[in-house]
Amino acid sequence: MRTPRRLALGARTVRWRFTALYGAMFLMSGAGLLVINNLVGLRGTRSSHAAPPGVVPDRPATLAAAMELNQLLQAELSQVKVAQSRQLLVGSIVALAVMAVVSVALGRIVAARVLRPLRTITAATRRISADDLHKRLAVAGPADEVKDLADTIDGLLERLEASFAAQRRFVANASHELRTPLTTMRASLDVAMAKPDPVPAQTAALADRLRAELDQVDRLLEGFLLLARAQHGASSDGTAFSLGRAVSAALDARAAGIAAKGLTVHDGTVDDRAWTRGDPTLLTRMIDNMIDNAVRHNHDGGWIRCATGAEGERALLVVETGGPLLDQGQVALLAQPFQRLSADRTGSDNGSGLGLSIVAAVAEAYGGGLELRARPEGGLRVAVSLPLTSVRAGVPA
């Protein structure tokens, strides 16, 4: 969020640098012209021997009278020179002040015209996100430095688009291909355990452990697919979705697990205005992961508080749990894939490490965000904000 602001400040700094440069150049040119004009004017004044206007020299009758007349004329000529020099200096100062203002204005205009193509490229590049890498700047014009920069950015976007597409294909293909041998392994295990001969206890225990591990791998692959879809395949369009109803459905579906751990579910604020828009499958999975995280990483006899609401233009969902004090630095990393807190802090070492990363990816895909905060009293606060919609059509999953 801060990067565009820094770029904008940088662009204004460059513009002011260009303004100062062009303004100084215009000002120096004007000052040079004024200096030349003053030098030429002073030289012309010095070379002028004409009598001042209004004085008609009379032919002197004697040498003394001629000398007196000469001194008078020189005194008056000196006064005229001083007056002309003063007027020329005042005019030069006024002209220089006007030239300074004009120079700054011209410098700013020229700087704006020089940087206009760069601002256009910057604005177009900001509008291109990971979901529309197919867009290009396509700057038209002569083959100059600006067009070369735009073509370089277009080439970079093309390589990024190919890289993102290859990543999506790899994750999807790998997940699907790995499910085939997993299904075969599970079927072979079931066939081996279904034989009529008595199965040793150790073999049965090993089979149960293998089934559990196969289920874990299957959940991991499903998490990969959901994460890839949320990061690169989610669309902002979709049906209206009620966060409050989805939370209630998720808690009801996990009532057995909540009761098994003796957890207390506190009824938080449930605001029926907390509606958003998106893919119900992804949004339901986001909420399910938040509830699963609260149930799985909770100690026996703990508590869970869920709340939904609307704040301004945002729909909010908050899930809080009690527990030991957590480190905020470690909590902030939980939105990244395969990041877990230690088992002694969470009370469990289960999970794929993708739950909250999927929550973050889904929230970001629909213009929202995930906030993870360690509660001062102990435990974790997970909050999701999404764009609020007033349309209450559609049935939430």
Automatic annotation (TrEMBL):
Intracellular or extracellular location(s):
Cell membrane
State the EC number(s): 2.7.13.3
Main subcellular localization, coarse class?
A: membrane
Q: Where are the transmembrane segments?
A: 20-40, 88-111
Keywords in alphabetical order: Kinase, Membrane, Phosphoprotein, Transferase, Transmembrane, Transmembrane helix, Two-component regulatory system
First-tier enzyme category under EC? transferase
Q: Which CDD domains match?
A: HAMP, HisKA
Reactions it catalyzes: ATP + protein L-histidine = ADP + protein N-phospho-L-histidine
Enumerate the spans annotated as Histidine kinase domain.
173-390
InterPro entries reported in the protein's UniProt record: HAMP_dom, HATPase_C_sf, HATPase_dom, His_kinase_dom, HisK_dim/P_dom, HisK_dim/P_sf, Sig_transdc_His_kin-like_C, TCS_sensor_his_kinase
One Gene Ontology MF term: kinase activity
Residue ranges of every copy of the HAMP domain listed in the record: 112-165
- Which domain of life does the UniProt lineage start with? Bacteria
Q: Which PANTHER family match?
A: SENSOR HISTIDINE KINASE TRCS, SENSOR HISTIDINE KINASE YKOH
- Protein name, per record: histidine kinase
Lineage here is: Bacteria, Bacillati, Actinomycetota, Actinomycetes, Streptosporangiales
